[in-house]
Amino acid sequence: MKIGEYLKQGNFSVSFEFFPPKTPEGERQLFETIEELKTLNPTFVSVTYGAGGSTRDRTRNIVKRIHEETSLTVMAHLTCIAHTREELYEILSDYKNIGIENILALRGDVPHDRPDFRPPEGACRYAVDLVRLIREKFGNYFSVGVASYPEGHPESPNMEWEIRYFGEKVRAGADFSITQMFFENHYYYEFIDMCQKEGINIPIIPGIMPITNFKQIKKFASMCGATIPQSLIEKMEPVEDRPEEIAKIGVEFAIAQCEDLLRNGVPGLHFYTLNRSRATLEIYRSVKGLIPIRDLYA
Ligand code: FAD
Hints:
Shape: globular
Strand order of the largest sheet: 1-2-3-4-5-6-7-8
Strand content: 5-15%
Number of helices: 12
CATH architecture: Alpha-Beta Barrel
Structural class: alpha/beta
CATH topology: TIM Barrel
Helix content: 40-55%
Order of helices and strands: HEHEHEHEHEHEHEHHHEHH
Bound molecules: flavin-adenine dinucleotide
Radius of gyration: 18 Å
C-alpha cells in the first residue's frame, strides 16, 4: 500500500516507528514489540536509518523481515548525506525489488563521531535532492514522505526559511510528511497555518514521543529543538529517577496531546516507539476518539 495514496483519500493513519537493533537480542525484542503493536492494525510501520549509512544493512534486513513475515505496510527511512547518488540508486532499487513502496526521504546529520566527515563527491546535499532523485529514477513507484519541524529545524534561522525549504521538498514530489516530536500542539497548528498560506497542502502527520525516560528525552529534545512545557518539567523533574512514575505522567500527557490533535482534525498519528510497545499500547487504548476513527477506516 502506498501511504501517500491512502492519506490522499482522506483516510486516517496510525503508525509506529522502530530503529534497527544492534544485537540479536534487540532484534528478538523488536519483533515481540511488533507482534504486540500489530494487534492495533497500524496503517504502516517505519524503520529508521543511520545517517552515516551505518545501519544500511540492518535497516534493510529489518524492513525486509517485517515485509515478508508480517502483513504490515513498512516504510524505510533513507538518509542521503553520506551516500553517493549511485549508492542511493542501488539501495532504492533493492527496496523496489523486494516490494517496498514507501520511503521517508531524509538528509540525516553529519555523524558526531566523524569530525573529518565530508559528503561524497556529488552527494545529495539536502533531502530535497533525494526526493528529486527518487522521482527522476523511479517516477511514482515510491510514495515519498519527508520530515517537517513545527518548531523549526535547528539549522533553520527562522520559520520563513523552514517553510520555504519544506515547500521545496513538497514541490519536488513528497506526498506526505511526518513531524519531529513536539509537546506543545500550538507549534503544530501554527506550522500547518503557515504551510497552508504558502499553498503546501500535503498531509502532515504529527510525530508523538511518549516520554518514558525523562533524562533521555531532555537530551533528544535539546538536540532537535523541541520545547518541553515548563508544567511537564515541574511534574517530571522531582521523579526523574522513578521510571514507573515518569512513564505514568508521560502516557497521561501523550493521551491529552493526542486527544487535542484529534479534535483538531489531524490526518494521523505517528508514534516514536523506541522499540517498546507498552506506552504506545496504553496511549492508543486510552485516547478518546481514536478507536472510532480507526474503525471507520479499517
Ligand atoms: P532537510 O530537509 O534537507 O533540511 C535540513 C536543513 O537544511 C533545514 O534547516 C532546511 O531548512 C535546510 N535546507 C534544506 N534545503 C536547503 C537548501 N536548498 N539551501 C539551504 N538550506 C536548506 N535521521 C536519521 O539519521 N535517520 C532517520 O531515520 C531519521 N528519521 C527521521 C524521521 C522523522 C519523522 C524526522 C522528523 C527526522 C528524522 N531524522 C532521521 C532526523 C533528520 O535526519 C535530521 O533532522 C536532519 O538534520 C535533517 O533532515 P531533513 O531530511 O529534515 O533535512
